[in-house]
Write a structure and sequence with these properties.
The complex is a heterodimer. By secondary structure, chain A is mainly α. Chain A folds into two domains: 122 residues, no CATH class; 57 residues, Orthogonal Bundle (Arc Repressor Mutant, subunit A). Chain A is built from nine helices and no strands. The two termini of chain A are 31 Å apart. In chain B, helix 1 packs across helix 2. Chain B is 34% helix and 32% strand. In chain B, the strands form three sheets. Chain B has a six-stranded mixed beta barrel with strand order 1-6-9-10-8-7. A three-stranded mixed sheet of chain B has the order 20-23-22, with helices on one face. A two-stranded antiparallel ribbon of chain B has the order 19-21. Among the domains of chain B are: 59 residues, no CATH class; 70 residues, Phage tail protein beta-alpha-beta fold, CATH 3.55.50. Chain B is of the alpha+beta class. The chains are: A mainly alpha, B alpha+beta. At the A-B interface, helix 2, helix 3, helix 4, helix 5 and helix 9 of A face helix 1, helix 3, helix 4, helix 5 and helix 6 of B.
């Protein structure tokens, strides 16, 4: 995750290091927050959590504590926002979905798994990644993928086979679910 | 109560399992967690399904971290001075709108390229044209467009501080910080073909908007009148305020009310502008005439500017759409098809002379078009569905 140098630079107030921390955690935290709060509020809440993280950066000794702090801060803000919404919206018939423990637990797991899967795909070479993305996540045919990327259909087939081989090593059995449903 | 750390730990086990890196010990712990509750087991199965992983992956890829990073830096280095808050807001809007355009483009693109031959065949085989649903596009005062649908639940901020809630297929306007002499901001709600939507204005007036209709209105009412501008069809339940009359302006007529329930049909492809009063009283004004309407009456303004009052009308027919029905009483095929084409997003082609039968009946707007077509066929109309076209022969 975060190496010691990055962590040290972050604690010393280095903006580049902070950006690295941000990039490692931001998207999955958005998935987490969107699972328990309104989608637009979610991004604001996550950004606010990073501001708080920066303000007390000197107190973090390892990346696990940064992760824990971010999840906890976001969880608490979402619960407070939900309570606030209940008061604001009491005349409207439906409210934002409840923030309960089950919801929180599942949103955390969802966020972490999304990150791990994305990380595995990011490790593939770029051309390969594009083919995998279009073929499997966008469900394009080989020909459609070839047209979009402006390459030959044979290139698509080779890249697909290469990507699958790497992903299969990364995900082993799970890949059966992910790609060969 | 489970702690955040514990959930992160479980997430870690699930990720390890997915990557095939899980140890026997960890696997046993994960198995225990799955057996802890039916909820856990259910969630685990859902989480490891192809569809779900694909869905969260797509969500993940749509998050714009560039804007977020700029936003955070703005908050950190430019402090919270009020002057700075405007560009931050703009960033937020830009981010939201970019995301929407991206999603829309993706959906459109997928729709265009996703196995086109198969889809066309399906249309030809099934002839299923689905009914409309809850769709609308909100145009904010700065020209930005926000798509609203049954699954979008959001809070939108207007520049004057008005907060808009979009919940339960209803767009509702909250309070604003508007002062008496501030510039009034106008929003427009556009309902496409095949859409309908509800709106609650800042004064509490409720409006049901029908397909292919548009309403322009201020985010907050000031001055001595409440003016809104309508194209198409809408049903109004105007909040009472005797000192501030509510005026609906259409291309040809103005309908002035103090607090009442009524329906206006002012489509450009219909000959007449019809105002049907359900409760209260309204005054309808054309360029040349002005009439007061009583409950149960319908004012009809025709193309020549003539204003007539129908006393013997079926109020239910006029507001059936609001209750999810098509209702016809002695209507000809053209009238029926005009209504159908707005709701089902279809094109009607007449080959030869129009059938002159009159129809009376009622059908739910929730059925596929084949339901309506079957009834018309049963009544002896010779019609054919070809893709999005309905061909009617004498």
């Amino acid at each position: 995750m975060l190496n010691t140098e990055t962590l040290l630079a972050f604690r010393n107030g280095d903006n580049e290091a902070f950006k690295h921390v941000f990039n490692v955690f931001y998207k999955r935290l958005c998935i987490f927050a969107a699972g328990i709060a309104n989608a637009e509020l979610a991004e604001d809440i996550v950004q606010e959590a990073f501001v708080k993280l920066w303000e007390r950066r000197e107190t973090f000794n390892h990346s696990e504590s940064i992760k824990g702090f971010l999840y906890l801060t976001i969880k608490n803000t979402c619960i407070n926002a939900y309570k606030h919404q209940q008061i604001v919206n009491k005349h409207l018939s439906t409210l934002v979905e409840g923030v309960d423990e089950k919801n929180i637990a599942q949103s955390i797991i969802e966020a972490e798994v999304a990150y791990e899967l994305q990380k595995a795909i990011q490790m593939l070479p770029l051309g390969c990644r594009k083919v995998i993305y279009l073929c499997y996540f966008k469900e394009f045919s080989n020909q459609e993928t070839a047209d979009v990327l402006d390459v030959s259909i044979n290139t698509v087939k080779t890249q697909k086979a290469r990507g699958m081989k790497i992903l299969r090593l990364l995900f082993k059995e799970a890949l059966i679910w992910i790609f060969f449903f | 109560m489970e702690s955040t750390e514990y959930n992160i730990y479980i997430a870690d086990l699930v990720s390890k399992l997915l990557k095939g890196e899980i140890s026997a010990e960890d696997n046993a712990l994960l198995e225990n967690w799955k057996k802890d509750s039916d909820e856990n087991m259910e969630f685990f199965i859902k989480l490891t399904s192809h569809e779900y992983l694909q869905e969260i992956q797509n969500k993940y890829n749509l998050i714009n971290s560039e804007f977020a990073w700029k936003n955070i830096n703005n908050k950190l280095y430019k402090e919270h001075s009020s002057k700075r808050s405007i560009p931050i807001n703009l960033f937020k809007y830009a981010a939201i709108i970019t995301l929407f355009i991206f999603v829309a483009a993706l959906l459109f693109y997928n729709h265009q390229t996703g196995k086109p031959t198969v889809k066309n065949n399906q249309v030809l085989v099934n002839n299923q044209i689905h009914p409309g649903g809850k769709h609308a596009v909100l145009i904010l005062s700065d020209g930005h467009k926000v798509y609203l649908g049954s699954k979008t639940r959001k809070l939108i901020n207007e520049d004057d501080g008005t907060i808009l809630h979009n919940i339960n297929n209803t767009l509702a306007y909250g309070n604003s910080n508007l002062k008496a002499n501030d510039v009034i901001l106008y929003n427009t709600l556009v309902i496409p073909r095949g859409g309908e939507y509800q709106l609650v204005l800042s004064d509490g007036t409720k409006i049901w908007m029908n397909s292919l209709s548009e309403l322009r209105y201020p985010t907050k009412f000031t001055g001595s009148e409440r003016n809104v501008f309508l194209k198409g069809e809408a049903y109004f339940e105007v909040a009472k305020n005797a000192s501030m009359p509510f005026i609906v302006k259409t291309n040809k007529a103005e309908i002035m009310v103090l607090g009442t329930h009524f329906n206006i049909t002012a489509y450009e492809d219909e000959k007449d502008v019809k105002t049907t009063l359900i409760e209260g009283s309204v005054k309808i004004k054309s360029q040349t005439a002005s009439r007061l309407l009583k409950p149960g009456e319908q004012a009809v303004l025709n193309n020549d500017g003539q204003l007539n009052i129908n006393k013997d009308i079926n109020v239910g027919e006029a507001i059936a759409w609001k209750n999810g029905l098509f209702e016809f009483k002695g209507s000809d095929i053209e009238q029926i098809m005009r209504k159908a084409s707005r709701w089902y997003d279809i094109k009607v082609i007449y080959q030869g002379a129009m059938p002159d039968t009159k129809f009376t009946g009622r059908i739910s707007r929730d059925v596929d078009i084949s339901g309506l077509m079957d009834i018309l066929r049963f009544e002896g109309v010779n019609l054919k569905i070809d893709g999005k076209n309905i061909i009617i022969k004498k």
